[in-house]
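User:
Note these tokens:
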Amino acid sequence: MKPVPQATSLRKAPVQRRSAERLTRILDACADLLDEVGYDELSTRAVAVRAGVPIGSVYRFFGNKRQMADALAQRNLERYSERVTERLKEAPKGDWRTAMDAVLDEYLAMKRTAPGFSLVDFGNQIPVGARDAEPNHRVADRLTDLLAAYVGRAPDEALRRTFLVAVESADALVHLSFRMAPEGDEKIIAETRELLRAYLARVLD
């Protein structure tokens, strides 16, 4: 399956609860269909049918399927951030190794269980080289905001760069692990964890 392109945000944000619930159904249907048919065969009409909404409801939020996929990626990032934050509530503050485990473990959990995540995750780099379109920059920015106070560092450009290098490295290796095994090759995941620990120790210890 080909990766899903990056797109813009919602045409119109939902205001009423009913509208928000309809948007949730649309994105849930989009995620399920991505797993079933892939991005190339995805259509707004198929999403409308699966979600049980009029096609006009889909177009109220999205001009095309690229925008819909990007909204799904944004939702994935929000849910990922929530999961990491929840994990860190129980962790001793300042323990960056625990934070790193939470970041990696929750990403692996979503990769294994979240519908559509294997194609969309947090977005894709279209056009190639466009800084704002790169999903790993999105993730590094979010982790900088989430973890700076937790690890006792200022959320500055140096910390963001550190997290970006870690995210890029982990992303490549996690994708490798899932090419090797359906649920991720555990030995490669273990090596990824060790690599991240060695790299981050240089900066965070």
The longest helix spans residues 65-89. The two ends are 41 Å apart (CA to CA). The chain has nine helices and no strands. Confidence is low (pLDDT under 50) at residues 1-7, 125-132.
